[in-house]
Amino acid sequence: MNGARQRSLHQAAVDQFQRAADLIDLNDSYREILSHPKNEIIVNFPVSLEDGSKKVFTGYRIQHNNLLGPYKGGLRFHPSVDLDEVKALAAWMTFKTALVGVPFGGAKGGVTIDPSQYSDEEMRRIVRRFTHALGSNIGPDHDIPAPDMGTSSQTMDWVMDTYANISPPGFRQSVKGVVTGKSVEVGGSVGREEATGRGVLYSLRHWCGENSVRLDELSISVQGFGNVGGYFAELAADAGCKIVGVADHTGTIANEDGLDVVKLRDWVDQHGGVDGFHGAMAITTEELFSLDVDVMVPAALENQITVERARALRCRLLVEAANGPTLPEAEQILMERGVDIVPDILANAGGVIVSYFEWLQNKSARAWSFTDVDARLRDLVWQAHDRVVERRAELSCTRREAAYVVALDRLADVYDRRGIFP
Ligand code: NAD
Fold first, then answer.
1. Phi, psi of 278 (to 5 degrees)
2. Same domain as 144, residue 77
3. Residue closest by Cα to atom 23 of ligand 1
4. Mean pLDDT, residues 44-73 taken together
5. 6 band by pLDDT with thresholds 50, 70 and 90
6. Catalytic residue among 72, 96, 108, 242
7. Atom of ligand 1 nearest to the CA of 195
8. For the chain, how many structural domains are there in total?
9. Residues 207, 158: one domain?
10. Are 226 and 323 members of one domain?
């Protein structure tokens, strides 16, 4: 599955922005700065497990860039987490926040762990001890984590509570914004949980408008049925799309007449995965990537669209809900085959957009309505797409390159004005 990981994911991320930088003749110093994270924090922390043993875990927080605002990015709990992966994910955050125009920089963090191997109580201890180890390296105006693979609003509630408890008493009420993606009861925003999936759907709607295609006539396959893929599939089915194939870590299923996504969600809640779902047939992973669909949405791990899969795909559009799902050589094949790609930094930016709204609500101690959150999310996604379409037409480049150009335009403008210290 992760066969392509021998090559550096971070280097692939750097290569991606360098191609866009070439198009606008970006200043060499800015290229050099953006090719490296500003800070790489690695912590090894011990946790007492329920059998009485102690285990040392390794956690990361990579702060890529904070030119436009506090470092911002998720925390991933997964066995594949390593320094290279987190560096790539942190860099993508810098370009994503710049692209959609929210006043944040880019960061990412995580712990190398398989959460399914630990009890809830052990996970609570692991999250709290990791937060303690990060200490003042995070903060509401400095570096603001959020959920990613393997973490949830519960994780964020524990991070916030731990951070508040290690803050001086007079500051404890003002540090809610140290993380976003908290549960609504603890200070989260309505609409944050499904924001990434909703942003993916807005991206698809924008693409439909641009290409005079009806959304409710699309057939779609989705890899990943977690926070992003699950909500996206539900929202897309609700909008009239036919979800014909879904994969997660337990299995891959298909139904050419369209899956009942609400029933599938219930099944996954009860059984822990899509495997065995009644009302669909089991297919292989490779069959998912060759289903005859209009749109394929990878919403799981990186490096899933390999060269072989790029040749097998029969879709017209790939919407990258996951970060970094497409290998560069595979992208080349997709371009040659005329498959359009909505790139990750654009397609999945809904999460960080609503995280920004949550942070604003925490700062002002006010709660916005769902209607407000959703309308503003749609506006920011739409504006970013419009800008990408404009820059793409001006530069005759790919949609991914244009997305990076929009981000680099903003970063370069601010570097030009602020200069490089000293
Ligand atoms: P999640 O942990 O909620 O769900 C991950 C899903 O992927 C699960 O359904 C899991 O079963 C599936 N999966 C794992 N390994 C798989 C495999 N080998 N084959 C098929 N399916 C597999 O994670 P998420 O938050 O939905 O994140 C998914 C992707 O979206 C990641 O790339 C993440 O960085 C990106 N993303 C997430 C957010 C967010 O707000 N959560 C925001 C932007 C981008």
1. -75, 145
2. yes
3. 149
4. 98
5. low
6. 108
7. 40
8. 2
9. no
10. yes
Pick the residue whose CA is nearest to atom 18 on ligand 1: 249
Q: Is residue 212 part of a domain?
A: yes
108 is known as an active-site residue: yes
Q: Is the pLDDT of residue 294 over 80?
A: yes
pLDDT above 70: percentage of residues in the chain? 99
DSSP state of 73: E
Region 100-122 average pLDDT: 98
Mutational pocket test of ligand 1: of 144, 148, 221, 253, the residue with most ligand atoms within 8 Å of the beta carbon: 148
**What's the 264 CA to ligand 1 centre distance in angstroms?**
17
pLDDT per position as a tens digit, 128-138:
999 999 999 99
The best mutation among 232, 296, 301, 344 to test binding of ligand 1, ranked by most ligand atoms within 8 Å of the C-beta, falls on 301
Residues 142 and 268 in one domain: no
Whether residue 172 sits in one domain with residue 39:
yes
Pocket of ligand 1 (CB under 6 A): 1, 147-150, 196, 223-229, 247-249, 299-301, 321-323, 348, 351
Q: Is residue 76 situated within a structural domain?
A: yes
In a domain, residue 359? The reply is no
- What is the domain-level CATH number for residue 154? 3.40.50.10860
Are 201 and 301 found together in one domain? yes
267 and 239 together in one domain: yes
Backbone angles phi, psi at 138, to 5 degrees: -115, 165
pLDDT value of residue 7: 82
Average pLDDT taken over every residue of the chain: 97
Atom 15 (ligand 1) nearest CA: 249
Query: Tell me: the pLDDT tens digits for 346-380?
Result: 999 999 999 999 999 999 999 999 999 999 999 99
The pLDDT tens digits of the residues spanning 133-188 come to 999 999 999 999 999 999 999 999 999 999 999 999 999 999 999 999 999 999 99
Question: For residue 47, how many C-alpha atoms fall within 13 Å in the half-sphere facing its CB?
Answer: 24
Distance (angstroms) between ligand 1 centre and the Cα of 298 equals: 9
Q: Please tell me whether residues 228 and 135 are part of one structural domain.
A: no
Nearest to 237 by CA among 207, 206, 263, 269: 263
Name the phi and psi angles at 38, rounded to 5: -70, -45
241, 222 contact by CB (below 8 A): no
Q: Say how many Å lie between the CA of residue 249 and the centre of ligand 1.
A: 10
The whole domain housing 112 covers 35-176
| CB-based contact 244:256 (threshold 8 Å) | yes
Report the CATH number at residue 266: 3.40.50.720
Q: How far is the CA of 253 from the centre of ligand 1 (A)?
A: 17
* 148 located within any domain: yes
- Secondary structure string (H, E, C) spanning 160-212: HHHHHHCCCHHHHHHCHHHCCCCCHHHCCCCCCCCHHHHHHHHHHHHHHHHCC
